Amino acid sequence: MLAAVVADTKVSAWDAATNEERKFFVDLCRSLTFSDQSLYDRLVTLHDEEPQLLAQLTSRERELLGYIDAGLSNQQIADRIDVSLTTVKWHLQNLYAKLGVTNRSAPLTRARVLSLLSR
Predict the structure, then answer these.
(1) Is 118 domain-assigned?
(2) 20: in domain
């Protein structure tokens, strides 16, 4: 029964869980039988990739997260760190790719899950 509930859950929803919640869920799922093993594999992958993800972020990308969190526009960020708007956009594209997100608000949620920003 629980495996069916897990199977009905969208994998993208797991990204918003904290690391502790995800670890608990992975441990719980180890005892379940899934008709689609790829679902379990994806959950484990999401859990295991967090330490690697943190190591991949540059100090500039972490800095940009803070500016996004503060509500600064791309132009305001460029002015603050004395780079071109194009450079800010390039850094943001790299940041979004590393965090596996596609829009400006999503990295904040992901960064909070990874404890890169305070809640």
Answers:
(1) no
(2) yes
Q: Do the beta carbons of residue 95 and residue 57 sit within 8 Å?
A: yes
Report the distance separating Cα 116 and Cα 31, nearest Å: 31
Spell out the per-residue pLDDT of the chain, length 119, in tens. Answer: 555 665 556 555 555 556 666 667 667 776 767 666 666 666 656 555 454 555 588 889 989 999 999 999 999 999 999 999 999 999 999 988 888 788 887 888 777 766 667 55
| Number of domains within the chain | 2
- Is the distance from CB of 28 to CB of 1 less than 8 angstroms? no
Find where tokens 């990308």 sit: 61
pTM for the predicted model, two decimal places: 0.56
* Residue at a domain's end among 48, 68, 83: 48
Inter-axis angle of helices 37-48 and 19-29, to 10 degrees?
150
Residues 40 and 66 in one domain: no
> Domain range holding 6?
2-48
